[in-house]
Structures are given as structure tokens and as C-alpha cells.
Automatic annotation (TrEMBL):
Biased composition (Basic and acidic residues): 38-52
Keywords: ATP-binding, Cell projection, Cilium, Cytoplasm, Cytoskeleton, Flagellum, Ligase, Nucleotide-binding
Compartments reported by the entry: Cytoplasm, Cytoskeleton, Flagellum axoneme
Any one GO MF annotation of this record: ATP binding
Domain of life (superkingdom): Eukaryota
Feature: compositional bias, Acidic residues: 92-106
Designated gene of the protein: Ttll3_1
Chain intervals for the UniProt region annotation (Disordered): 38-108, 217-245
Catalytic activity entry: L-glutamyl-[protein] + glycine + ATP = glycyl-L-glutamyl-[protein] + ADP + phosphate + H(+)
Record-linked InterPro entries: ATP_grasp_subdomain_1, TTL/TTLL_fam, TTLL_monoglycylase
Protein name according to UniProt: TTLL3 monoglycylase
PANTHER family: TUBULIN MONOGLYCYLASE TTLL3 (PTHR45870:SF2)
GO CC list: axoneme; microtubule cytoskeleton
GO process annotations (BP): cilium assembly; cilium movement
Length: 621
């Protein structure tokens, strides 16, 4: 093993990786866990304190740290750039129970071999936390499963920021695959969100007015239901409300706003010196209160024949300009997420007290509850934003994203897709797509009238806290997971067998590549290394995929029968691709397929440049 340079180290609960490398004749240099060494030196009081701290977020504690002299040492932090937080965003697995390594090595042979190579530098490292590895040693390891800096791609705020610049890299519009998103801690983006919320409310009022009048806008009808179960489920607000309808002026104001917005989209305001008319043309506070009554309390509206025609015409013209009009619905729901955490973690509201106003006819989100929250009122979002508005130099804590109200469901239940892909080189950018993926279901039926996590967050770590209710459709998988093959069979029963290969897979590949292209310059790559990612997608009613986020270090802990097999397969195929293929380019790489390999780009000089502009003035003839 020493001569063949087959020494590896595994940091974290990856028994599959360990067994696969053993089978290849590799020897493990085992890593002592830093927390065990610390506990041996601490008294009982300090030991209890350490255990208490670790129980809060195990992903940040108890990691072995390699150092050049062997053994382990506590992590002393990182010197990564300050514009992105160090890696709270990763979908780490420390909360999952680690398998007993003693059961994997009953004869102790691997322990003995590990002892023999205890002072050797590993040639291959598979780790959860790259920041805990000594940088001097890291430079000596040839193959590592992590890149030094991927925050631009794998944090919600990093993706939100960089996708705004996509048109500079590709002829692509991020609004066609990524729900519009804003960083609340940046004042300019907070103001843009406020304008977006108001404009969405105006469009939503026109949709509600048409629905209450019995009309449907062309292109927004729900797909037909099938005998195998409902393809979509969108419970709407109760029509019970005040007997006296709201003033027709509310519809007139919404029409005026949408007409002004169309002028802006058509660049007809390019020479206007006054502020955006969408911000000043009506009393927005009064308008939003009226909209809330219609959308959430069932207040009635009356439409004249002329107004009905204007509503239809305006919405159809807006649909040509706004790619997200068909999926945004009419309740103006937005989802607030911690900008750099995964699995629904985070603390909303910081240290502020909980100030919750009652809202009739729906569940109000608590701005003091942990993790992701949904909100339908502007003041709720801004209340949270007050605690994280910062100067441009500091990372903001929260992002707000338009919630997909019109999405594809299965048996009336929301689901998302976890899609793996791998980057094996940054220059030239080389991307591999994994053909197998899986679906994650919520544990309760989808409803826009109830905003609980059990109905709206598909994360396994969230849904495992809830039990399936009796009124849940019995066809929803008990473990909450489907393979992509099961999903394709379901689509075939709906008569849309073509949607997977013709719409969803190409859309997911395009979204992944577009995200990588606009973040590539902000990521740190190293030759010989690689990284596996997990992208999360929702599917619209038209079967188009919408990217939600990209996770570095996606979980490999099996949560179901389906993921037990799929996670083992993707780990097996990863080693085939990054190790076996170097010696045998024709070896099997399983379900991975190469979807992009760009041209190599010469390294840019970042220092010592002497920039100068030379020229002469033009003279009139």
C-alpha cells in the first residue's frame, strides 16, 4: 500500500466509502476523534458542558483534525474570506448515528494496518469539514472530496447573489429556473423585494378577481386529474366573507399598477426622472390591506365587463414578460430561509421577542420559530429583516424567496427531487450528472391555507419529526421516499411518460450548469480533487423543474429502503469515477454521465497589473 500510494483517511460517518476502499486494497489511516481526546482531559463538569454544547448542533463539534505530525488536534478555525460564512450550509450528517466501526473490523486487522501507517500522509481523503484539516497537510494529499471554497454555489445567499449575474455569462434568464430571491440584509435588495411583493399583490388581485367572477386566465388552468390520483392540489381561501363587496377602486388600482409595470418591462420609462411609478402611483398600505382581505379573508370583489376584459388582457401580456407568473399563484406567499444553513435549520428573529399578530382564516408563521418560515404579509417579512439589515460589507443572515404556489404534487402531497452531480475539475470546468435520483415527500397533504413545515418542507430531517395523519392518501410512500424510476412510472400512468426525459432532466441539467457558470470564478478548486453536490428541485404544473438550492456534502445516511440503495450506489460510482478511471479510462462509472467539459482558461494575473487607458480627443470637423 505504501509503494502503491493507497493510504486513505475518512472523516465522518461513511462506512460505505471505507469498505469500498478496503476492498480495493487501500489501508486506512484512522483518525482519532478530537472530542474524545478533550473529554479525557476534562473533569465531569466540563464534560457535561461539552456534551450539552454538542447536542445543540452536532455538525459543528467532535471532528477529527489531521495534522502533519499524526494524531488529532482541536480545530483552530479558518482563514476563509469573510464575504461568506464557513460552512454552516453543508448538509452534514453528524446528527445521524454512526455505525460501529468495531463491527466492520471484528478481527482487528484493519486497526493493525492503520497503526502501521499512522505517520503516513494519506493519498485520499474523504471528509465532511475541509476547514478542520491542517492546511500544510492538505497540500500534500493528492485527492480530496471537497473544494476549499464553494460558498458562492452552496449557500442560499451565494446562489441568490451570483445568479443575478448569469446574463453576463450565458444567454439565459435565471427567472426561468430559479424562483426570484432577495437578501434581506442588503438594503437595495430589501427595497427591491418590497416592490416585488407589492407588484405580485397587484397581479394576484387581478387573478382573484377573475376567479371570483368565474373566469380563468388562459395558461393557468390546473392539469386534468387522473384515475391514479390528483396531480395537483391547491385548496383556495374560503369565499365566506363580508356581505358587502370591496370597492371597485381596489381593482382599478391593481390595473393601474400592472399597466405601469408593463411600461417598465417594455423600457418605456427609460427617460423618466421621477421614482418608479410602481412605488408612488397608489397608497400601498391601503391597497395591501384590501388585498389581504380578498386573499386571506374571503372578501368579495365586483368586476364590470370592461374591467374583466382589461384583467384578461393585462395578465396575458404580463405572462409574456414574466416567466414566473404561472407558478407564483395568487396568495403572495414568500418563504424566508437562513442564508447559510440547510435542513430547515436556523433561528428566525434572533434575540428579539416574539411579536405575532393574529390573522384570520390561516396559520400565522412565528417569527421566533427555528428554521424556515412562510409569510404572506409584507410586515411579517420586514419585521424579521429589521434584525439583519447590515452594511454592504457584512454577510446578511436571511434570504426571502417567492414560494411556488402552483406546483406538481403526487396524491395531493408536496415533494421535491434530490439530484446529485459532481465537479471533477474547475479548469476546465468538468461536470458529471447522476442519472438516478430520489423524491422526498411531505408527511401531510399540501395546502396553501396551512403553512406548517409538515406540509411545505420536504427535508427528511424535518419530516421525520412528524407522523403521517389518517387523512393522508394511503398511496403516499410510508417512508416518504420514491426513486426516480417510481416517479417515471407514476408519470406514465398520468399519460406524461415523456415529461421526465424531455422536460425535467434537461431542465435540471441546464439549471445546474447555469449555476456553476456564474459561480465558477468565486469558487476555489484544486487539481486532482472533486466534490459531490445535491441539488434540490420542485416541479411546476407544466413539469418544468425549479432549482431551490444546492447542497455541498449531501447526506449519505440512508433514511429509507430507496436511499439505502441509491446512496450506496452513488458512493460506489464516485470512487469508480475519481479513482478507478485514472488507471482505466474505459472502466464502468455507473450512473454518472459527463454533461459538460469546458475549454481550459489561462490563469488570470491578479497582482502587478499596470492598467492604463491611452487615446486622444476627437475634434470637430
Amino acid at each position: 500500500s505504501l509503494q502503491e500510494k493507497k493510504i486513505f483517511a475518512v472523516q465522518g460517518p461513511y462506512p460505505i466509502i471505507r469498505r469500498l476502499l478496503w476492498a480495493r486494497g487501500w489501508v486506512e489511516r484512522k483518525l482519532p476523534r478530537a472530542d474524545r481526546q478533550l473529554k479525557q482531559r476534562l473533569g465531569s463538569r466540563e464534560k457535561r458542558r461539552l456534551e450539552t454544547e454538542q447536542s445543540g448542533d452536532g455538525a459543528e463539534q467532535g471532528e477529527a483534525v489531521l495534522n502533519p505530525c499524526g494524531g488529532a488536534q482541536p480545530s483552530l478555525g479558518t482563514t476563509e474570506p469573510l464575504h461568506y460564512p464557513w460552512p454552516h450550509h453543508e448538509e452534514e450528517e453528524q446528527e445521524e448515528e454512526e455505525e460501529d466501526e468495531d463491527n466492520e473490523d471484528p478481527d482487528g486487522i484493519h486497526d493493525f494496518m492503520s497503526f502501521l501507517v499512522r505517520d503516513q500522509v494519506p493519498n485520499f481523503l474523504w471528509t465532511i469539514h475541509l476547514g478542520t484539516i491542517d492546511r500544510e497537510l492538505l497540500r500534500k494529499i493528492k485527492v480530496v472530496n471537497r473544494y476549499p471554497s464553494v460558498h458562492a454555489l452552496s449557500t442560499k445567499e451565494g446562489l441568490c447573489l451570483n445568479l443575478q449575474n448569469l446574463p453576463w455569462f450565458e444567454q439565459a434568464d435565471p427567472n426561468t429556473f430559479f424562483p426570484r430571491c432577495y437578501r434581506l440584509g442588503i438594503m437595495e435588495e430589501q427595497e427591491a423585494f418590497i416592490e416585488d411583493f407589492r407588484l405580485t399583490a397587484a397581479r394576484s388581485l387581478l387573478k382573484l378577481a377573475l376567479e371570483k367572477a368565474g373566469d380563468k386566465l388562459v395558461g393557468t388552468e390546473q392539469p386534468p386529474k387522473s384515475n391514479t390520483g390528483p396531480a395537483t392540489s391547491h385548496p383556495m381561501p374560503s369565499t365566506e366573507g363580508p356581505e358587502i363587496p370591496l370597492s371597485p377602486q381596489l381593482v382599478e388600482e391593481a390595473l393601474e399598477v400592472c399597466e405601469q409595470h408593463l411600461d417598465v418591462l417594455g423600457h418605456q420609462d427609460i427617460d423618466r426622472k421621477t421614482p418608479s411609478p410602481c412605488r408612488t402611483c397608489i397608497d400601498w398600505d391601503h391597497f395591501l390591506q384590501g388585498y389581504y382581505r380578498v386573499a386571506h379573508e374571503g372578501a368579495r370583489l365586483t368586476l364590470s365587463g370592461a374591467q374583466r376584459e382589461r384583467c384578461q388582457s393585462l395578465l396575458q401580456r404580463l405572462a409574456e414578460q414574466l416567466p414566473q407568473l404561472s407558478m407564483e399563484g395568487n396568495l403572495n406567499i414568500w418563504i424566508l430561509k437562513p442564508g447559510a444553513k440547510s435542513r430547515g435549520r436556523g433561528k428566525a428573529g434572533g434575540s428579539r421577542g416574539c411579536t405575532q399578530a393574529p390573522h384570520r382564516g390561516r396559520v400565522s408563521p412565528s417569527l421566533c420559530s427555528p428554521g424556515i418560515v412562510c409569510a404572506t404579509r409584507l410586515e411579517e417579512v420586514l419585521q424579521l429583516a429589521q434584525g439583519c439589515t447590515t452594511p454592504l460589507g457584512r454577510v446578511c443572515e436571511w434570504v426571502v424567496q417567492k414560494y411556488m404556489e402552483r406546483l406538481l404534487t403526487i396524491f395531493g402531497t408536496k415533494f421535491d427531487i434530490r439530484q446529485w452531480f459532481m465537479v471533477t475539475d474547475g479548469n476546465p470546468l468538468t461536470v458529471w450528472f447522476y442519472r438516478d435520483c430520489y423524491l422526498r415527500f411531505c408527511s401531510q397533504p399540501f395546502s396553501l391555507r396551512h403553512l406548517e413545515h409538515s406540509r411545505h418542507l420536504c427535508n427528511v430531517s424535518v419530516q421525520k419529526k412528524y407522523r403521517t395523519l389518517p387523512h393522508q392518501d394511503p398511496r403516499v410512500p410510508p417512508e416518504g421516499i420514491w426513486s426516480s424510476k417510481q416517479f417515471q412510472a407514476h408519470l406514465a400512468r398520468l399519460g406524461r411518460a415523456d415529461a421526465w426525459h424531455q422536460v425535467m432532466v434537461p431542465g435540471m441539467k441546464a439549471a445546474i450548469l447555469n449555476s456553476l457558470r456564474c459561480t465558477q470564478d468565486h469558487m476555489g478548486f484544486r487539481k486532482g480533487s472533486f466534490e459531490l453536490y445535491g441539488a434540490d428541485f420542485l416541479i411546476g404544473e407544466d413539469y418544468r423543474p425549479w432549482l431551490l438550492e444546492i447542497n455541498s456534502c449531501p447526506t449519505m445516511s440512508p433514511s429509507s429502503t430507496v436511499t439505502r440503495q441509491l446512496c450506496a450506489n452513488v458512493q460506489r460510482d464516485t470512487l469508480r469515477l475519481v479513482l478507478d478511471r485514472k488507471d482505466n479510462p474505459r472502466c464502468s462509472i455507473g450512473a454518472f454521465e459527463l454533461i459538460y467539459k469546458g475549454a481550459a482558461v489561462p490563469p488570470c494575473m491578479t497582482m502587478g497589473l499596470n492598467l492604463m487607458v491611452e487615446g486622444c480627443s476627437l475634434k470637430k470637423p
